[in-house]
Write a structure and sequence with these properties.
six-stranded parallel sheet; binds S-adenosyl-L-homocysteine; binds FE3-S4 cluster; Transcription Regulator spoIIAA; binds iron/sulfur cluster; Rossmann fold; single chain; OB fold (Dihydrolipoamide Acetyltransferase, E2P); about 425 residues; alpha/beta; 14 helices
Length: about 425
Protein backbone atom coordinates (compact mmCIF):
# COMPACT_ATOMS: atom_id res chain seq x y z
CA UNK A 1 0.00 0.00 0.00
CA UNK A 2 3.03 2.24 -0.15
CA UNK A 3 3.61 2.94 -3.83
CA UNK A 4 3.29 6.58 -4.85
CA UNK A 5 3.21 8.00 -8.36
CA UNK A 6 3.82 11.76 -8.65
CA UNK A 7 2.76 13.65 -11.76
CA UNK A 8 3.91 17.24 -12.25
CA UNK A 9 2.33 20.15 -14.15
CA UNK A 10 3.15 23.86 -14.20
CA UNK A 11 6.43 25.65 -13.73
CA UNK A 12 9.95 24.45 -12.92
CA UNK A 13 9.30 25.27 -9.30
CA UNK A 14 6.67 22.56 -9.26
CA UNK A 15 9.22 20.09 -10.60
CA UNK A 16 11.56 20.99 -7.75
CA UNK A 17 8.66 20.72 -5.27
CA UNK A 18 7.71 17.25 -6.52
CA UNK A 19 11.26 16.25 -5.59
CA UNK A 20 10.70 17.56 -2.05
CA UNK A 21 7.41 15.64 -1.76
CA UNK A 22 9.15 12.54 -3.11
CA UNK A 23 11.92 12.82 -0.52
CA UNK A 24 9.50 13.30 2.40
CA UNK A 25 7.60 10.22 1.26
CA UNK A 26 10.75 8.09 0.79
CA UNK A 27 11.90 9.08 4.28
CA UNK A 28 8.57 7.84 5.62
CA UNK A 29 8.62 4.41 4.06
CA UNK A 30 6.90 5.08 0.75
CA UNK A 31 8.25 3.97 -2.60
CA UNK A 32 8.17 6.24 -5.67
CA UNK A 33 7.00 4.39 -8.78
CA UNK A 34 7.19 5.48 -12.40
CA UNK A 35 3.81 4.19 -13.58
CA UNK A 36 0.33 5.04 -12.37
CA UNK A 37 -0.62 1.36 -12.78
CA UNK A 38 1.74 0.37 -9.94
CA UNK A 39 0.49 3.10 -7.61
CA UNK A 40 -1.55 2.97 -4.42
CA UNK A 41 -1.45 6.76 -4.28
CA UNK A 42 -1.38 9.17 -7.22
CA UNK A 43 -0.33 12.74 -6.43
CA UNK A 44 -0.83 15.47 -9.02
CA UNK A 45 1.27 18.60 -8.56
CA UNK A 46 -0.79 21.33 -10.14
CA UNK A 47 -0.66 24.83 -11.62
CA UNK A 48 -3.36 27.50 -11.29
CA UNK A 49 -1.83 30.24 -13.41
CA UNK A 50 -4.31 29.96 -16.30
CA UNK A 51 -7.80 28.50 -16.58
CA UNK A 52 -6.80 25.94 -19.23
CA UNK A 53 -4.09 24.59 -16.90
CA UNK A 54 -6.78 23.92 -14.31
CA UNK A 55 -9.25 22.44 -16.82
CA UNK A 56 -6.63 19.91 -17.81
CA UNK A 57 -6.25 18.78 -14.20
CA UNK A 58 -10.01 18.47 -13.62
CA UNK A 59 -10.16 16.24 -16.74
CA UNK A 60 -7.19 14.20 -15.57
CA UNK A 61 -8.80 13.61 -12.15
CA UNK A 62 -12.04 12.68 -13.87
CA UNK A 63 -10.19 10.08 -15.98
CA UNK A 64 -8.47 8.71 -12.88
CA UNK A 65 -11.82 7.92 -11.31
CA UNK A 66 -12.02 5.02 -13.79
CA UNK A 67 -8.80 3.62 -12.33
CA UNK A 68 -10.36 3.97 -8.89
CA UNK A 69 -13.26 1.78 -9.97
CA UNK A 70 -10.77 -1.00 -10.73
CA UNK A 71 -8.80 -0.34 -7.56
CA UNK A 72 -11.13 1.08 -4.86
CA UNK A 73 -8.23 1.54 -2.42
CA UNK A 74 -6.41 3.90 -4.78
CA UNK A 75 -6.00 7.38 -3.33
CA UNK A 76 -5.78 10.52 -5.43
CA UNK A 77 -4.17 13.70 -4.13
CA UNK A 78 -3.96 17.22 -5.51
CA UNK A 79 -0.93 19.17 -4.38
CA UNK A 80 0.50 22.55 -5.42
CA UNK A 81 -1.15 25.73 -6.60
CA UNK A 82 -4.62 24.38 -7.46
CA UNK A 83 -4.78 22.74 -4.05
CA UNK A 84 -4.10 26.13 -2.51
CA UNK A 85 -6.61 27.94 -4.72
CA UNK A 86 -9.53 25.51 -4.69
CA UNK A 87 -9.04 23.85 -1.31
CA UNK A 88 -11.94 21.64 -0.13
CA UNK A 89 -13.93 22.01 -3.34
CA UNK A 90 -11.46 19.49 -4.79
CA UNK A 91 -12.69 16.95 -2.26
CA UNK A 92 -16.35 17.81 -2.73
CA UNK A 93 -16.47 18.27 -6.49
CA UNK A 94 -13.50 16.38 -7.89
CA UNK A 95 -13.72 13.58 -5.30
CA UNK A 96 -10.03 13.53 -4.49
CA UNK A 97 -8.75 12.14 -1.16
CA UNK A 98 -5.87 14.47 -0.39
CA UNK A 99 -5.45 18.23 -0.84
CA UNK A 100 -2.02 19.57 0.12
CA UNK A 101 -0.83 23.14 -0.48
CA UNK A 102 2.76 24.16 -1.37
CA UNK A 103 3.81 24.86 2.23
CA UNK A 104 2.46 21.62 3.74
CA UNK A 105 4.66 19.03 2.03
CA UNK A 106 6.38 18.00 5.25
CA UNK A 107 3.06 16.49 6.32
CA UNK A 108 2.20 14.77 3.05
CA UNK A 109 2.66 11.26 4.50
CA UNK A 110 0.31 12.07 7.40
CA UNK A 111 -2.33 13.29 4.96
CA UNK A 112 -1.98 10.15 2.85
CA UNK A 113 -2.60 8.04 5.95
CA UNK A 114 -6.11 9.42 6.34
CA UNK A 115 -9.05 8.57 4.10
CA UNK A 116 -9.56 12.22 3.19
CA UNK A 117 -7.39 15.08 4.38
CA UNK A 118 -6.61 18.69 3.59
CA UNK A 119 -3.80 21.05 4.61
CA UNK A 120 -3.45 24.34 2.76
CA UNK A 121 -1.87 26.49 5.44
CA UNK A 122 0.65 28.95 3.94
CA UNK A 123 3.83 29.67 5.86
CA UNK A 124 5.96 32.79 6.28
CA UNK A 125 9.22 30.89 6.63
CA UNK A 126 9.01 27.37 5.21
CA UNK A 127 11.76 26.87 2.61
CA UNK A 128 12.35 23.12 2.96
CA UNK A 129 16.04 24.01 3.00
CA UNK A 130 17.02 20.96 5.02
CA UNK A 131 15.38 18.58 2.54
CA UNK A 132 17.55 17.42 -0.37
CA UNK A 133 14.91 16.65 -3.02
CA UNK A 134 14.56 13.31 -4.80
CA UNK A 135 15.39 13.67 -8.51
CA UNK A 136 12.23 12.60 -10.32
CA UNK A 137 12.23 11.94 -14.09
CA UNK A 138 15.79 13.20 -14.13
CA UNK A 139 18.20 12.97 -17.06
CA UNK A 140 21.06 12.94 -14.56
CA UNK A 141 22.52 16.12 -16.09
CA UNK A 142 20.16 19.03 -15.41
CA UNK A 143 18.57 19.83 -12.07
CA UNK A 144 16.64 22.63 -10.39
CA UNK A 145 17.27 24.18 -7.01
CA UNK A 146 14.61 26.36 -5.39
CA UNK A 147 16.41 29.28 -3.77
CA UNK A 148 13.29 31.07 -2.60
CA UNK A 149 9.53 30.60 -2.37
CA UNK A 150 6.49 32.81 -2.73
CA UNK A 151 5.96 36.13 -4.47
CA UNK A 152 4.86 39.53 -3.24
CA UNK A 153 4.85 41.44 -6.49
CA UNK A 154 1.10 41.17 -7.02
CA UNK A 155 1.06 41.66 -10.76
CA UNK A 156 -2.66 42.29 -11.14
CA UNK A 157 -3.34 39.33 -13.47
CA UNK A 158 -1.41 36.76 -11.45
CA UNK A 159 -2.58 34.14 -8.98
CA UNK A 160 0.89 33.12 -7.73
CA UNK A 161 1.08 35.49 -4.72
CA UNK A 162 -2.17 33.90 -3.48
CA UNK A 163 -1.15 30.29 -4.10
CA UNK A 164 2.47 30.58 -2.96
CA UNK A 165 2.30 33.19 -0.23
CA UNK A 166 5.02 35.41 1.19
CA UNK A 167 8.44 35.72 -0.38
CA UNK A 168 11.22 34.01 1.58
CA UNK A 169 14.81 33.09 0.73
CA UNK A 170 16.74 30.02 1.70
CA UNK A 171 20.22 30.10 3.26
CA UNK A 172 23.16 30.33 0.81
CA UNK A 173 24.94 27.58 2.69
CA UNK A 174 22.05 25.10 2.15
CA UNK A 175 21.83 26.03 -1.56
CA UNK A 176 25.57 25.54 -2.08
CA UNK A 177 25.51 22.25 -0.23
CA UNK A 178 22.71 21.00 -2.47
CA UNK A 179 24.50 22.21 -5.62
CA UNK A 180 27.76 20.50 -4.55
CA UNK A 181 25.90 17.27 -3.92
CA UNK A 182 24.30 17.47 -7.37
CA UNK A 183 27.70 18.11 -8.96
CA UNK A 184 29.20 15.13 -7.14
CA UNK A 185 26.29 13.02 -8.37
CA UNK A 186 27.17 13.92 -11.97
CA UNK A 187 24.80 16.85 -12.61
CA UNK A 188 26.32 19.57 -14.80
CA UNK A 189 23.53 22.10 -15.39
CA UNK A 190 21.77 23.67 -12.42
CA UNK A 191 18.97 26.23 -12.57
CA UNK A 192 18.40 28.39 -9.49
CA UNK A 193 14.69 28.99 -9.15
CA UNK A 194 12.45 31.69 -7.71
CA UNK A 195 9.49 33.76 -8.98
CA UNK A 196 11.79 36.76 -8.80
CA UNK A 197 15.37 35.67 -8.11
CA UNK A 198 16.57 39.29 -8.19
CA UNK A 199 14.94 39.89 -4.83
CA UNK A 200 16.77 36.99 -3.18
CA UNK A 201 18.11 38.19 0.17
CA UNK A 202 19.46 36.30 3.15
CA UNK A 203 21.29 37.59 6.20
CA UNK A 204 24.29 35.41 6.90
CA UNK A 205 26.58 36.18 9.85
CA UNK A 206 25.10 39.67 10.04
CA UNK A 207 25.77 40.33 6.34
CA UNK A 208 23.21 40.46 3.55
CA UNK A 209 23.76 38.04 0.68
CA UNK A 210 21.98 39.03 -2.54
CA UNK A 211 21.39 37.12 -5.74
CA UNK A 212 24.49 38.21 -7.70
CA UNK A 213 26.72 36.98 -4.89
CA UNK A 214 24.83 33.72 -4.52
CA UNK A 215 25.08 33.07 -8.25
CA UNK A 216 28.84 33.57 -8.23
CA UNK A 217 29.23 31.34 -5.19
CA UNK A 218 27.34 28.50 -6.86
CA UNK A 219 29.33 28.97 -10.08
CA UNK A 220 32.58 28.72 -8.11
CA UNK A 221 31.79 25.14 -7.07
CA UNK A 222 33.38 23.92 -10.30
CA UNK A 223 34.13 25.45 -13.74
CA UNK A 224 32.39 22.52 -15.42
CA UNK A 225 29.13 23.16 -13.59
CA UNK A 226 26.79 25.33 -15.65
CA UNK A 227 24.58 27.65 -13.66
CA UNK A 228 21.29 29.14 -14.89
CA UNK A 229 18.48 30.99 -13.13
CA UNK A 230 14.81 31.89 -13.55
CA UNK A 231 12.95 34.17 -13.31
CA UNK A 232 14.28 37.73 -13.29
CA UNK A 233 11.81 40.51 -12.78
CA UNK A 234 12.87 43.43 -15.03
CA UNK A 235 12.26 45.98 -12.27
CA UNK A 236 15.00 44.40 -10.12
CA UNK A 237 17.58 43.31 -12.69
CA UNK A 238 20.73 45.05 -11.43
CA UNK A 239 23.96 46.05 -13.12
CA UNK A 240 25.70 44.03 -10.43
CA UNK A 241 23.88 40.89 -11.62
CA UNK A 242 24.72 41.59 -15.27
CA UNK A 243 28.38 42.02 -14.26
CA UNK A 244 28.28 38.75 -12.33
CA UNK A 245 26.92 36.88 -15.38
CA UNK A 246 29.62 38.42 -17.57
CA UNK A 247 32.35 37.59 -15.07
CA UNK A 248 32.25 33.79 -15.15
CA UNK A 249 32.15 31.55 -18.22
CA UNK A 250 30.06 28.88 -16.47
CA UNK A 251 27.23 31.29 -15.62
CA UNK A 252 25.06 30.76 -18.67
CA UNK A 253 24.67 33.60 -21.13
CA UNK A 254 20.93 33.45 -21.06
CA UNK A 255 18.44 35.73 -19.32
CA UNK A 256 14.70 35.17 -19.13
CA UNK A 257 13.26 38.65 -18.70
CA UNK A 258 9.45 38.61 -18.96
CA UNK A 259 8.14 41.82 -20.52
CA UNK A 260 4.38 40.91 -20.43
CA UNK A 261 3.40 43.87 -22.65
CA UNK A 262 4.99 46.56 -24.82
CA UNK A 263 2.52 49.23 -23.75
CA UNK A 264 3.15 51.49 -20.76
CA UNK A 265 -0.58 51.74 -20.12
CA UNK A 266 -0.87 47.95 -19.87
CA UNK A 267 2.32 47.64 -17.79
CA UNK A 268 0.93 50.11 -15.29
CA UNK A 269 -2.39 48.30 -15.18
CA UNK A 270 -0.52 45.04 -14.69
CA UNK A 271 1.42 46.59 -11.77
CA UNK A 272 4.73 45.56 -13.32
CA UNK A 273 6.54 48.64 -11.91
CA UNK A 274 8.66 49.38 -15.00
CA UNK A 275 8.11 51.26 -18.25
CA UNK A 276 8.96 50.15 -21.78
CA UNK A 277 11.82 52.66 -21.74
CA UNK A 278 13.25 51.26 -18.50
CA UNK A 279 12.91 47.72 -19.82
CA UNK A 280 14.74 48.60 -23.04
CA UNK A 281 17.50 50.28 -21.02
CA UNK A 282 18.04 46.99 -19.17
CA UNK A 283 18.19 45.16 -22.52
CA UNK A 284 20.83 47.67 -23.72
CA UNK A 285 22.84 47.08 -20.57
CA UNK A 286 22.76 43.31 -21.13
CA UNK A 287 23.73 43.67 -24.81
CA UNK A 288 26.58 46.01 -23.94
CA UNK A 289 28.09 43.90 -21.15
CA UNK A 290 27.28 40.41 -22.48
CA UNK A 291 27.21 40.62 -26.29
CA UNK A 292 26.55 36.88 -26.74
CA UNK A 293 23.68 36.76 -24.23
CA UNK A 294 20.40 35.17 -25.33
CA UNK A 295 17.23 36.81 -24.04
CA UNK A 296 13.78 35.29 -23.74
CA UNK A 297 10.48 36.60 -22.44
CA UNK A 298 6.91 35.93 -21.34
CA UNK A 299 4.06 37.94 -22.83
CA UNK A 300 0.32 38.18 -22.31
CA UNK A 301 -2.01 39.00 -25.22
CA UNK A 302 -5.43 40.56 -24.65
CA UNK A 303 -5.17 41.83 -21.08
CA UNK A 304 -8.14 43.87 -19.81
CA UNK A 305 -8.71 46.96 -21.96
CA UNK A 306 -5.81 46.22 -24.33
CA UNK A 307 -6.35 48.28 -27.48
CA UNK A 308 -5.11 47.49 -30.98
CA UNK A 309 -2.50 50.18 -30.38
CA UNK A 310 -1.31 48.54 -27.13
CA UNK A 311 -1.05 45.24 -29.00
CA UNK A 312 0.95 46.89 -31.80
CA UNK A 313 3.37 48.18 -29.14
CA UNK A 314 3.89 44.61 -27.91
CA UNK A 315 4.79 43.52 -31.44
CA UNK A 316 7.05 46.53 -31.60
CA UNK A 317 9.01 45.71 -28.46
CA UNK A 318 9.47 42.15 -29.77
CA UNK A 319 11.00 43.61 -32.94
CA UNK A 320 13.20 45.96 -30.93
CA UNK A 321 14.54 43.37 -28.49
CA UNK A 322 14.66 40.54 -31.06
CA UNK A 323 14.04 37.83 -28.47
CA UNK A 324 15.73 34.48 -29.01
CA UNK A 325 12.63 32.72 -27.70
CA UNK A 326 9.38 33.49 -25.89
CA UNK A 327 6.57 31.95 -23.86
CA UNK A 328 3.37 33.49 -25.16
CA UNK A 329 -0.05 33.39 -23.50
CA UNK A 330 -3.49 34.86 -23.91
CA UNK A 331 -4.89 36.52 -20.84
CA UNK A 332 -6.86 34.26 -18.53
CA UNK A 333 -8.99 35.86 -15.85
CA UNK A 334 -8.09 34.44 -12.39
CA UNK A 335 -10.58 34.73 -9.51
CA UNK A 336 -9.06 36.45 -6.49
CA UNK A 337 -6.65 38.67 -8.43
CA UNK A 338 -6.82 42.46 -8.57
CA UNK A 339 -7.57 42.34 -12.30
CA UNK A 340 -10.53 40.04 -11.63
CA UNK A 341 -11.91 42.40 -9.00
CA UNK A 342 -11.23 45.78 -10.62
CA UNK A 343 -10.99 45.35 -14.41
CA UNK A 344 -13.23 43.88 -17.06
CA UNK A 345 -11.94 40.92 -19.07
CA UNK A 346 -13.27 42.66 -22.18
CA UNK A 347 -11.20 41.33 -25.08
CA UNK A 348 -13.20 38.76 -27.06
CA UNK A 349 -11.72 35.26 -27.13
CA UNK A 350 -11.36 35.33 -30.94
CA UNK A 351 -9.53 38.64 -30.67
CA UNK A 352 -7.19 37.29 -27.95
CA UNK A 353 -6.44 34.32 -30.18
CA UNK A 354 -5.71 36.56 -33.17
CA UNK A 355 -3.36 38.82 -31.18
CA UNK A 356 -1.58 35.86 -29.64
CA UNK A 357 -1.14 34.27 -33.07
CA UNK A 358 0.40 37.49 -34.42
CA UNK A 359 2.92 37.47 -31.60
CA UNK A 360 3.67 33.76 -32.14
CA UNK A 361 4.19 34.28 -35.89
CA UNK A 362 6.52 37.22 -35.28
CA UNK A 363 8.49 35.32 -32.64
CA UNK A 364 8.88 32.31 -34.93
CA UNK A 365 10.53 34.61 -37.47
CA UNK A 366 12.75 36.22 -34.77
CA UNK A 367 13.78 32.79 -33.40
CA UNK A 368 14.66 31.65 -36.91
CA UNK A 369 16.74 34.79 -37.53
CA UNK A 370 18.48 34.36 -34.17
CA UNK A 371 19.33 30.75 -35.02
CA UNK A 372 20.47 31.61 -38.56
CA UNK A 373 22.97 34.04 -37.07
CA UNK A 374 24.57 31.07 -35.27
CA UNK A 375 25.33 29.19 -38.49
CA UNK A 376 29.10 28.98 -38.92
CA UNK A 377 29.76 29.70 -35.24
CA UNK A 378 31.13 27.18 -32.75
CA UNK A 379 29.45 26.56 -29.39
CA UNK A 380 30.32 24.46 -26.40
CA UNK A 381 27.43 22.03 -26.02
CA UNK A 382 26.63 20.08 -22.86
CA UNK A 383 25.22 16.72 -23.96
CA UNK A 384 21.90 15.87 -22.29
CA UNK A 385 21.00 12.67 -24.10
CA UNK A 386 20.15 10.92 -27.34
CA UNK A 387 17.97 12.74 -29.83
CA UNK A 388 14.42 11.43 -29.48
CA UNK A 389 13.94 11.23 -33.23
CA UNK A 390 17.26 9.63 -34.16
CA UNK A 391 19.32 7.50 -31.78
CA UNK A 392 22.47 8.01 -33.89
CA UNK A 393 22.40 11.64 -32.75
CA UNK A 394 22.87 13.44 -29.47
CA UNK A 395 21.20 16.57 -28.23
CA UNK A 396 22.43 19.18 -25.80
CA UNK A 397 22.24 22.88 -25.07
CA UNK A 398 24.50 25.86 -25.57
CA UNK A 399 25.15 28.34 -22.79
CA UNK A 400 22.48 30.45 -24.55
CA UNK A 401 19.93 27.67 -23.87
CA UNK A 402 19.55 26.68 -27.53
CA UNK A 403 19.10 23.01 -28.38
CA UNK A 404 21.74 21.53 -30.71
CA UNK A 405 21.59 18.16 -32.48
CA UNK A 406 24.70 16.44 -33.84
CA UNK A 407 26.19 12.99 -34.63
CA UNK A 408 26.82 10.82 -31.63
CA UNK A 409 30.29 9.45 -32.47
CA UNK A 410 31.79 8.13 -29.25
CA UNK A 411 30.36 10.90 -27.08
CA UNK A 412 27.91 10.56 -24.26
CA UNK A 413 25.64 12.35 -21.82
CA UNK A 414 27.48 14.86 -19.62
CA UNK A 415 30.28 15.55 -22.15
CA UNK A 416 31.12 19.11 -23.20
CA UNK A 417 31.64 19.17 -26.96
CA UNK A 418 32.56 21.95 -29.39
CA UNK A 419 30.01 21.94 -32.17
CA UNK A 420 29.99 24.08 -35.31
CA UNK A 421 26.48 25.01 -36.41
CA UNK A 422 25.63 24.08 -40.00
CA UNK A 423 21.86 24.36 -40.19
CA UNK A 424 18.77 25.35 -38.19
CA UNK A 425 15.04 25.61 -37.83
CA UNK A 426 13.31 28.21 -35.65
CA UNK A 427 13.48 25.74 -32.74
CA UNK A 428 16.72 23.76 -33.17
CA UNK A 429 20.34 24.08 -34.27
CA UNK A 430 22.07 21.27 -36.19
CA UNK A 431 25.84 20.97 -36.16
CA UNK A 432 29.01 18.92 -36.35
CA UNK A 433 31.58 18.15 -33.69
CA UNK A 434 34.94 19.81 -34.24
CA UNK A 435 38.22 18.60 -32.74
N1 LIG B 1 7.41 35.11 -11.78
C1 LIG B 1 7.44 35.09 -13.16
C2 LIG B 1 6.28 34.41 -13.86
C3 LIG B 1 5.47 33.36 -13.26
S1 LIG B 1 4.02 32.86 -14.12
C4 LIG B 1 7.52 36.52 -13.62
O1 LIG B 1 7.21 37.44 -12.92
O2 LIG B 1 7.84 36.73 -14.77
C5 LIG B 1 4.63 32.61 -15.78
C6 LIG B 1 3.97 33.47 -16.80
O3 LIG B 1 2.60 33.17 -16.91
C7 LIG B 1 3.98 34.95 -16.52
O4 LIG B 1 5.20 35.55 -16.81
C8 LIG B 1 2.87 35.46 -17.39
O5 LIG B 1 3.34 35.77 -18.68
C9 LIG B 1 1.94 34.28 -17.47
N2 LIG B 1 0.70 34.53 -16.72
C10 LIG B 1 0.56 34.73 -15.39
N3 LIG B 1 -0.74 34.96 -15.07
C11 LIG B 1 -1.43 34.89 -16.24
C12 LIG B 1 -2.81 35.03 -16.58
N4 LIG B 1 -3.71 35.32 -15.66
N5 LIG B 1 -3.16 34.87 -17.88
C13 LIG B 1 -2.24 34.60 -18.82
N6 LIG B 1 -0.93 34.45 -18.56
C14 LIG B 1 -0.53 34.60 -17.28
FE1 LIG C 1 3.10 36.49 -10.82
FE2 LIG C 1 4.19 38.89 -11.03
FE3 LIG C 1 4.90 37.29 -9.02
FE4 LIG C 1 5.65 36.73 -11.51
S1 LIG C 1 6.26 38.53 -10.33
S2 LIG C 1 4.79 35.31 -10.03
S3 LIG C 1 3.91 37.40 -12.73
S4 LIG C 1 2.88 38.20 -9.34
FE1 LIG D 1 1.69 27.54 -11.84
FE2 LIG D 1 2.01 27.73 -9.26
FE3 LIG D 1 4.10 27.69 -10.86
S1 LIG D 1 0.42 28.70 -10.42
S2 LIG D 1 3.33 28.72 -12.67
S3 LIG D 1 2.67 26.05 -10.58
S4 LIG D 1 3.92 28.80 -8.96
Amino acid sequence: MNNVYIETYGCQMNQADSGIVGKVLEDNGYKLVSSQDDADVILINTCAVRDNAEKRIHNRVHDLQALKKKNPLLKIGIIGCMAERLQDSLIKEDKVNIVCGPDSYRKIHELINQSTAIDVELSKDETYEDIIPAQLNSDGISAFISIMRGCENFCTYCVVPYTRGKERSRSPQSIIQEAKQLFDDGYRDITLLGQNVNSYIYTEDGKEVRFAELLVRVARINPSLRVRFATSHPKDLSEELVNAIASMPNICKYIHLPVQSGSNIMLKKMNRKYTVEEYLAKIDLIRKKIPDCAISTDVIAGFCGETEEDHAMTLDIFRKVRYDSAFMFKYSDRPGTVAHKRFVDDIEETEKVRRLQEIIDLQRELSLQSNQKDIGKTFEVLVEGESKRDSSKLFGRTSQNKVVIFDKGDNKKGDYIDVIIENCTSATLFGKKIN
